[in-house]
Amino acid sequence: MDIVKYFTIFLVIWGHVVQQSLNPGVYPEQVDGIYRLIYTFHMPLFMGISGYFFGKSVCKVGGVYSYLKKKLKKRIRRIV
Length: 80
Hints:
Layout: H1 2-21, H2 33-61, H3 64-79
């Protein structure tokens, strides 16, 4: 599962690189095959995998309420 997650992260980065390298006035995104291929599945796959791991994390803590009370509070403090 981690390999798929890393692969989708790579595709997200690669998609942004391809998107930035295209000159919209000269070469529209709809024509580029690599751009279209990556954007058809990379974000849904990445979000699905992330949701899977998030669900596992919530189950380990003991439910949504426990997750919000313990982990989320700690993560927000770290960010701030």
